[in-house]
Design brief:
Order of helices and strands: HHHHHHHHHHHHH
Structural class: mainly alpha
Largest sheet: none
Helix content: over 70%
Distance between the termini: 24 Å
Number of strands: 0
Number of domains: 1
Length: 283
Amino acid sequence: MSSRVLGFFRISNPMIRKELRQRLRERRAWLLPSLYLLVLSGTVAFCYYMVVQEGTQRGTELQGADIGQAIFYTVVFTQLAVLLLMAPVFSAGAITIEKEQRTLSGLLTSLLTAPQIWWGKFVSALLYLFLLLFSALPLLALSFAFGGVEPLALLKATGAMVLVLASISAVGLWCSATFRRSVHSTAAGYAIVLVLTIVTAVAFGILLAHWTHSLGGNHQDAPPVYVQAPLFLNPMYPFLSLLDDTDLRKFAYPASSYLLFTAMGLLAAAFAIRRLRRSGEQV
């Protein structure tokens, strides 16, 4: 039992080496990071221009802390939005590509167990997302030059993004283990991301409207937990606690969101491994 556990978590898993070599030999291995950094750089330049332009129009003295905070928040939310669009691409087709190429049966009959196959696919997909994530750290650190942002905020933002991406990648692998075609699993992965981002926000808006109407529109306190609950599974929610806006801080309960994303990732991993084991029994 202990050897299986060690084999599951061992980074020298041959699936990881195979997937990483295959991904890094593709053209998008250098094309995607270049486009990713170009998008973030353009966003930072646009944010700087808008902040300076707004300060000029108001006729007030612009503080460096205002620029630093604007750049930090812009990069964090833009980075999360872009990586959420990329996560299903790398995870939702990881297992279906083996089915389409008819190589999954060979993997299942090899010395690798189903958890090891899942772990190799998961780590390889996540490591490429981490490459994109950490390549943008210099842009995030640019906010330190202007001030207004503490290093602890950078650590919180990076840790929350790692957790969200890991959970979404696990869900994508579950879709990949469930469907037979990459197009179907990728579409299902994107559908889940849309539900988590848009449907949860709409549900929160409906509950907030009902709660506000029940109070007659006069309220200054934070909405109760049952009103905010749909947002706990929204990928943007853990980052609200980083904002200095007083109104947004009322909606920040990151611990609940962290626990739900962790549970969702673990459940998706368990279901994906179970699906792989059933596929192995049919070989």
